[in-house]
Amino acid sequence: MTRQRIGRPVRASSFVGRRQETAEVKRLVAAHRLVSLTGTGGVGKTRLVLHAVPRLARAFADGVHIVQLAGVRDASLVPLALIEALNIRDVSGRSPVRVLIDQLQDRESLLVLDNCEHLADACSRLVETLLAETDRVRVLATSRHPLDVTAQHVLEVQPLATPTPGEPLPPKPALEYPALALFADRAAAVLPGFSLTADNQDAVAALCRRLDGLPLAIELAAVRMRALGVQQLLERLDRRHRLLADSADSASDDVLSRHRTLRAAVDWSHDLCTPEEQTVWARASVFAGSFDLGAAEEVCAGPGLDRDEMVDAVAGLVDKSLLVRDGDAVHARYRMLESIRQYGLDRLREDGGRAEAVARRRVRDWCLDFVEECERRWFGPDQPELVRRLHAESDLIRSAFEFCLNTPGELRAGLKLAGHLWFFWFATGALVEGRYWLERLLAAAPEPTVARARALWGLALMLLSQGNAVRAAPLVEEARELALRLGDEAEAAHTYFGRGGALLISGDYARARVVYEEALSRPPREGESMSLVGFKYVELAHVLAIQGEFDRAMALCEDFRQVCLTYGEQWIHSYLLRILAFAEWAKGDRTAARVHARECLRLKRAVGDVFGTGMTLELLAAVHARDGEGRPAAVLLGAAKRIWQDAHVALDRTPSHGPVRTEAEECARALLGGGFKSAYQEGLDLTSDHAVAYALGERESAARPVLDSPLTRRETEVAELLAEGLTNQQIADRLVVALRTAEGHVERILSKLGFTSRSQVAVWTEGRRAIRP
Predict the structure, then answer these.
(1) How far is the CA of 294 from the CAs of 308, 347, 369, 393, 749, in angstroms?
(2) Measured between alpha carbons, how far is 241 from 267 in angstroms, rounded to an integer?
(3) Neighbour-count burial of 716, counting CB atoms closer than 10 A to its CB (0-12 exposed, 13-18 middle, 19+ buried)
(4) How far is CA 303 from CA 162, 210, 280, 617, 743, in A?
(5) pLDDT band at 505 (very low <50, low <70, confident <90, very high)
(6) Confidence at residue 532, expressed as pLDDT on a 0 to 100 scale
(7) CA distances from 661 to 559, 618, 664 (A)
(8) pTM assigned to the model
């Protein structure tokens, strides 16, 4: 494989200094399989890593993957965080660690684990296992303390250099002292025109010394240049620092001294906040990862803070560099640096933890409302946007699950939350995570509730997607019996899909047909998911097509297609199109089958349905094969096989799907002879996005480009312009297109790359420039 990827960087402002450290990181990563960057809070470990990542990408054929661990609180979630960062869609049912080992076995990748200190034991165990079980994987970690792994090289990140007291400053001090350069850069951002001069450079040097050269402390101080001069900054900060030093036993230890320095800077920033800003700071510290304004309003508003005051309070914290704004002009998100977040938590816990418990319960409530809304809106035109938002909120949702599992009386809410996420886990192939939460919650909450019934059939769907009908069948029957006992007809109706699915993938078509025909003989119940109603049509049509009743199968597909078109729905629609194409292919109408299979792929790409894509690529390969087009058939078979191999699933060998692949492969081999192997290998080397582009005729050749990218040529051009900092209007002007066209390109780029901000696209583009031959 030659997959090169830089995954999910966070937004960063301009980077100052650290040239030698960047070079040292590159050298150490080349020489050692595990490198840990350590140092006190606020010293800039994460910023250094993010700056070095694009310069490291050339050395790793299978990419550099950044795993943000600051928002992960439960040690058992560390493997899942890696699985998400690597975009692994494994459906084998094995342990997450085993999944990681097998996926990384033949890859040449760099894993960047950022903010490991609060998960040190879990990170150490996982890293040690991965290094022992793989040959070409390397790890770059950031932590306040080294990991407990034997073969580790530690680089302690030092504060930025500052002038020695009494030392005359050189003619251009910013060139020799990065601390001064950083202050000048950040001060100019809030006070346009500011620069180091003969009149202020001594005071700036003294200020940076007082701040021990800590980048975060310097940035917090520089923000105050809106209201104060450098000398005033120095005097006020000096008083604050002396108070902390006087209260400490000793200032001789460098780490303790720097901790007090950072505490002084953060304390001072806190004192300069309005009461409303202080309240948001404390309450928002419970957010894991990033959050948007809507979540902040739900969690942070309350006593001492009205919802109407929230926008101004959030804006004030952004202005003071206490919140970092991520996202783009459309989707603004916010996050706290870990040192700032920890300070806020300390403030929140001053009442013994009561305020923290209230805030975390509000996070749980917000997550529950959010996923319920997503499920309500799922059968409609917003599916790609909902997938994007659910991915963006993944850290927050995980924190809500942890709260429910670890807080007395919250298990039912946790089951309800998991039950409403079935469609997201199912549609995007995030089955490892879905099973993880559903199995834990079901084991912890055995009480007979409606929430348990839904969680049971939700888990059954995860298992069926993994090919495990033996375990899924009794779960879905238990769910049905429980729902009927509790008098919930909608939940009982939801179990039809799983009941029939267990029979279908086992090859028992006659009994599966009975189940689905019984399901469709009854009108939808109030509260029944339209997606699961649609799957009844999909699966009954599938059974009918297998049994040779092609016309009835196609009629069923067309019936519910009209419903999907009315609602603007894409996910179920894609499955209907696939069954329609399958029936047309089986009947001999290859032209119609080709049209519908390609239309299916376009919709599956929009919602990120990886497994549905694999099945449709095989069907389209069978269409090409019957048309005598051996090469595209072989390429698409190889591409589908890559999806099954990456997922560790054998859907291509199940009774309901296997015959299509078998016929396509036999025919393609007969057409190509000895040329089959090379065409098949080309397909194996394709990513899912490239395979779809090839199947749709968007690429003339299946050969993988030197640099792996899911973007089209025009989208790549737009990404380059984003990296230059151009606005949507400027991009439109440069390309001579309408503004809406430019906005559409930007939205598709963010969706395809799994990013939430334009700055992430810029970092990704810079990384590709660095590895371009």
Answers:
(1) 12, 23, 12, 12, 24
(2) 10
(3) middle
(4) 44, 37, 11, 56, 40
(5) confident
(6) 95
(7) 28, 6, 5
(8) 0.79
Give bridge partners of residue 326 from the DSSP assignment: 333
At 191 the three-state DSSP class reads coil
Summarize pLDDT for 360-418 with one digit per residue, the tens.
999 999 999 999 999 999 999 999 899 989 988 988 999 999 999 999 999 999 999 99
The letter for the amino acid at 603 is: L
Matching residue, tokens 């209007």: 729
Exposed/middle/buried for 354, CB within 10 Å: 0-12, 13-18, 19+?
exposed
d(CA 278, CA 284): 10
Question: pLDDT tens for residues 18-31?
Answer: 888 888 998 999 89
pLDDT in tens, 680-695: 999 988 888 889 999 9
Distance CA 544, CA 553 (A): 6
Helices (H), 521-609: 530-546, 550-567, 571-587, 590-607
DSSP state of 748: H
* pLDDT on residue 771: 43
Torsion sign across C-alpha atoms 199, 205, 208, 209: negative
d(CA 466, CA 474): 15
Say if CB 368 and CB 416 are below 8 A apart: yes
Give the separation between CA 464 and CA 353, rounded to whole angstroms.
42
Task: Name the band, by pLDDT with cuts 50, 70 and 90, for residue 594.
Answer: very high
Q: What is the mean pLDDT of residues 510-530?
A: 93
Please tell me whether residue 34 adopts helix, strand or coil conformation: strand
DSSP H helices in 160-292: 173-176, 178-190, 201-210, 215-223, 230-247, 254-271, 275-284
- The percent of the chain in helix, strand and coil, each rounded to the nearest 5, is 65, 5, 30
Is the CA virtual torsion 196, 197, 198, 200 positive or negative?
A: negative
CA triplet 689, 694, 698: central angle to 5 degrees? 95
32: number of Cβ within 10 Å: 17
Three-class DSSP category at 289? coil
Radius of gyration of the chain (CA): 28
The rounded distance, in Å, linking the Cα atoms of 642 and 645 is 5
| Least confident piece of the model among 248-257, 404-413, 548-557, 710-719 | 248-257
pLDDT mean across residues, the chain: 85
**Burial label, 626 (beta-carbon count in 10 A; 0-12, 13-18, 19+):** middle
Identify which of 184-198, 294-308, 621-635 has the greatest average pLDDT.
621-635
3-state SS class at 752: helix
For residues 445-450, give the mean pLDDT.
95
Token pair of 454 as six digits: 């839904």
Task: Identify the CA nearest to 394 among candidates 73, 87, 761, 81.
Answer: 81
The rounded distance, in Å, linking the Cα atoms of 90 and 106 is 16
Is 60 exceeded by the pLDDT of residue 2? Answer: no
